[in-house]
Amino acid sequence: MQSDTKSSLMAIGTTDRSTFRTCRLLWDYSSQNRLNYSNIGAIKNYEFGTAMHEAMEILYDPETWDKGMTIAKINRAKAAFVSYLTTFRINLISVGIDGDIFREIDDYIKIGPSIIDNYVEWASEADEHIRPVKTEIDFEVPIPVTEKQSKILRPGFSTEYNNVMDCHVLMYKGEVVLYKGIIDLLVYDDRFDSYIIIDHKTTSNFAYSSEAKLERDTQASAYYWALRMLDINVMGTEFNYILKDAPSPPNVLKSGKLSKAKDQKTTYNLYMQAIEDNDLDVADYIGFLEDFEEPEYFKRIESYRDAQQLKLIGEYILLEAMDMLGDPFIYPNINAFHQCKSCEFFVPCTKKINGEDDIAYIESTTMYIQNYD
Ligand code: SF4
Q1: Ligand 1 contacts CB of residue 350 (under 6 A)
Q2: What is the pLDDT of residue 6?
């Protein structure tokens, strides 16, 4: 999906924007437009997410949607998940990586198919009102510049008229600047008679998700903006959170009875199955099952944008593009240490603070890979 424009080497994306906003030094280490290093530990988490996206692409294939969630389709989704991580594992071995990372990847490979089974069961209700339109939408959109905005362009930036978008768009050193990204899934939502973006997010903790946070999520805003620029009348985004965890059957006690502990990672259906498998009397568990609350493994959070927000998103993208591409000063612009605690470049950054050569360190360890894609 691309608007008519000259080919361009100048492209920014959502990850770029979010790291640039978090910390310029982090952005300098990691952006594809800068040093382009990746941390192996962060890649591992990223690749779990990518493997799950491969599975979701099969489950939400518009071509097969009307046939429902057949066993064959679910098995193909599981196979895609396992195959992706197995290939990733092989690639790590081939570049000389070793250590604990393999144990974690193997755990992912083991748990992924159970997550997918559990997801399909949960989504049968959550998906009742949607119809997939397209998966994995690759987009590249030029950034519009109004006449008023053209007066504040930084040195090196200019505009040219784009006949498809019918407006002037941003250029840097003679190249059109593109905003690019991949939208996981576009669906038609019967409740609103409108298109909705579905963004799959794998997470180890739902505490990272909240409506207020997603209201300002740059990725959701940018995808909404991009589709609107491409004349697709989308209403907003639904974040499809998938916990990196799966339920298991309830514990069987030494007595042969099932545990009634409330914090078990199980489900109502698995509990009923265990009663049957262990030849137990369901009457002994009715009270427990009535009060049992299944832990949450999945969550959908809706986040919508309106016309005023759309205008602001476009302005912010323009300003950030100029900030990022216009040879910015690099410094750690975090405002609280908690932002550093989970930073994948914490060690090289600390070395830099201590007057050591951070880049020499990055180059000397197998913890970092350059130009990983
Ligand atoms: S550790 Fe903190 S200051 Fe250093 S690169 Fe990461 S976020 Fe920036």
Answers
A1: no
A2: 44
